[in-house]
């Protein structure tokens, strides 16, 4: 009997596999996208995503509600046919972590057994001694002159069981696949069962059966003969099972009537995910308790009982339904690969380009960000690696004998403005003024250098003194213009913090020019953009970055200069706490960065 159920246990999953193998890796099976709000600690998960914490927060997961039904039998003293009975029930299950979960299960099972061979020890059974007062006629089975205890054992047993189980699943820790469709698990539990056992010893008229007719003309040494004997027995009995099975008074139980018995449970199962909501599986469970009368009989001869207790078996098909909002919880953790996030991060790192510091033209801008990789030797460039033409006269600075020519004049091949030396009439002066006014618009297209800052600093770095000197030279050469200093920050920290920090950077750059070149403060207009308008967009909001990403953040920490227009106005300091420090060096020195320390990357 046990062998038949084991065959079912391992053959039915193959049926599931054959019927479901056509399913593909659709969205129902893809790895979950876990938002911070779907974890038990959103703040920790946010820090983990930004690289500031080693560990992610545990996701919130759904509950599983299960329904089950299948075949039941009792392994005991009386042989059970197949099928011997049936069972059904329900369970609720919740994941503790990715490997362990707990399950509460309620089940009802009923089964029957029929003994092909006759039995001669009824008089020694509790089933006899505890029922003889109610049914005195049973004494006829023990009269040596008429029957000699010759009966055929039979029973009908009903068991109501409640069990709390710990479940260990094997199959969701995967190194070579993002998700699992199959889950093998084992469960161990404690619970109680309430058995009710009946034996059919009297016919519908309350008379004794003629059990001798069961084996009349039957060869019990053959399998067919034993099957025929059991069939004869079932035809003989009326199926009432009116005689209560015996009860052991020394059995471990709850209460005086020995009707509530504790048990251990052991289960093994295999389940198949059909979707993120539904799974279907097969499971075999046994209940171990201190009870040898679940089949109504316990004697192996007139003086001794059998050496082992009776064991209920239950092989069931289980339908699991995941309960909970998909927007707030993921599927139960035993269906989730805990390595998925780590392996995804590793794959992403492998896909990133290697940081190449090659600077083919030697202009100080590496080829990865250089928009002009063949700049002539010795020519100054902007932050994008383009050869500078500061006054926009068509002659690059390295060949321009007058890098900041006055606007409105033609220039020579050497870049020198051709300013006329002759005296001019009043009309010529007016025309020139108008020409200069129109030329002022062209000043807006002048390239004025930008300067960059270390992380969380507004200290002006010495390597940008030359850029600020160029700006001062333009302003001295053209006292009629004003210059806008527009500060920016990278996207790390809050918007309020970055607004104050970008304001401080623009203000410090203006103070440097005022202090060192005696340019009036009212010729500067201070604006700020915080983390808006980055040169390099789409960077992560976190400090766990590689060298390439940190260099890109560095490009966004800047102050840009341009000639003011009539619409440009000073911006007041934004509200918020003080931000940044006016000291040399990055706020996060050490192994975080490699490269040019003074450049902050």
Q: Can you give the mean pLDDT?
A: 84
What's the total count of β strands?
13
Biggest β-sheet strands, sense, barrel: 8 strands, antiparallel, barrel
The amount of beta strand, in percent, is 15-25%
Rg, Cα atoms, Å: 45 Å
Order of helical and strand elements: HHEEEHEEHEEEEHHEHEHEHE
Order the strands across the largest sheet as they lie in space: 1-2-3-4-5-7-8-9
Helix percent reads 10-25%
- Give the CATH class of the largest domain: Mainly Beta
- Between the first and last Cα atoms, what is the distance in angstroms? 74 Å
Q: How many helical elements?
A: 9
Structural class: alpha+beta
Examine the secondary-structure arrangement and name the CATH architecture of the largest domain. Answer: Beta Barrel
CATH topology of the largest domain: Porin
| Poorly predicted tracts of residues | 6-27, 590-601
Label the overall shape.
rod-shaped
- Number of folding domains? 3
């Amino acid at each position: 009997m046990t062998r038949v159920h084991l065959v079912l246990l391992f053959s039915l999953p193959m049926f599931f596999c054959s019927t479901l193998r056509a399913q593909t890796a659709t969205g129902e099976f893809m790895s979950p996208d876990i938002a911070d709000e779907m974890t038990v600690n959103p703040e920790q998960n946010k820090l983990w995503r930004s690289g500031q914490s080693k560990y992610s927060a545990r996701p919130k997961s759904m509950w599983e509600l299960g329904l089950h039904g299948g075949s039941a039998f009792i392994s005991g003293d009386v042989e059970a046919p197949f099928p011997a009975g049936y069972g059904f029930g329900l369970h609720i299950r919740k994941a503790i972590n990715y490997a362990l979960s707990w399950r509460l299960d309620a089940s009802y099972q009923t089964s029957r057994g029929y003994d092909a061979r006759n039995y001669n020890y009824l008089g020694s059974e509790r089933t006899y001694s505890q029922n003889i007062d109610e049914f005195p006629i049973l004494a006829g089975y023990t009269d040596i002159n008429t029957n000699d205890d010759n009966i055929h054992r039979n029973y009908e047993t009903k068991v109501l069981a409640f069990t709390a189980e710990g479940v260990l699943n094997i199959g969701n820790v995967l190194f070579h696949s993002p998700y699992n469709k199959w889950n093998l698990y084992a469960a161990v539990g404690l619970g109680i069962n309430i058995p009710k056992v009946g034996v059919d010893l009297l016919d519908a008229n309350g008379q004794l059966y003629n059990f001798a007719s069961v084996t009349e003309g039957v060869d019990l040494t053959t399998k067919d003969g034993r099957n025929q004997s059991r069939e004869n027995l079932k035809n003989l009995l009326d199926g009432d099972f009116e005689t209560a099975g015996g009860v052991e008074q020394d059995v471990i139980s709850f209460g005086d009537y020995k009707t509530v018995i504790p048990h251990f449970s052991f289960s093994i199962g295999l389940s198949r995910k059909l979707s993120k909501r539904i799974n279907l599986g097969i499971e075999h469970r046994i209940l171990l308790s201190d009870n040898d009368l679940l089949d109504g009989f316990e004697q192996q001869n007139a003086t001794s009982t059998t050496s082992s207790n009776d064991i209920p078996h239950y092989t069931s098909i289980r339908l699991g339904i995941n309960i909970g909002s998909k927007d707030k919880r993921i599927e139960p953790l035993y269906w989730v690969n805990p390595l998925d996030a780590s392996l995804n991060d590793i794959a992403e790192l492998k896909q990133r380009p290697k940081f190449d510091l090659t600077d083919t033209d030697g202009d100080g801008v590496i080829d990865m960000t250089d928009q002009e990789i063949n700049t002539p030797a010795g020519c100054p460039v902007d932050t994008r690696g383009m050869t500078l033409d500061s006054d926009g006269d068509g002659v690059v600075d390295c060949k321009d004998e007058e890098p900041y020519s006055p606007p409105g004049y033609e220039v020579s091949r050497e870049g020198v403005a051709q300013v006329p030396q002759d005296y001019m009439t009043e009309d010529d002066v007016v025309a020139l003024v108008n020409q200069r006014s129109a030329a002022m618009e062209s000043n807006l297209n002048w390239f004025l250098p930008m300067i960059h800052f270390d992380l969380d600093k507004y200290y002006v770095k010495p390597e940008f003194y030359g850029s600020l000197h160029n700006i001062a030279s333009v302003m001295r050469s053209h006292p009629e213009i004003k210059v806008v200093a527009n500060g920016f920050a990278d996207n790390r920290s809050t918007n309020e913090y970055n607004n104050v920090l970008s304001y401080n950077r623009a203000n410090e750059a203006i103070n440097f020019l005022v202090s060192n070149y005696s340019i009036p403060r009212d010729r500067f207009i201070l604006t700020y953009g915080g983390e808006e308008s980055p040169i390099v967009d789409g960077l992560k909001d976190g400090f766990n970055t590689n060298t390439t990403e940190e260099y890109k953040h560095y490009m966004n920490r800047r102050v840009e200069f341009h000639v003011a227009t009539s619409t440009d106005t000073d911006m007041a300091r934004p509200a918020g706490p003080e931000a940044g420090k006016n000291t040399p060096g990055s706020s996060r020195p050490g192994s975080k960065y490699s490269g040019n320390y003074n450049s902050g990357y």
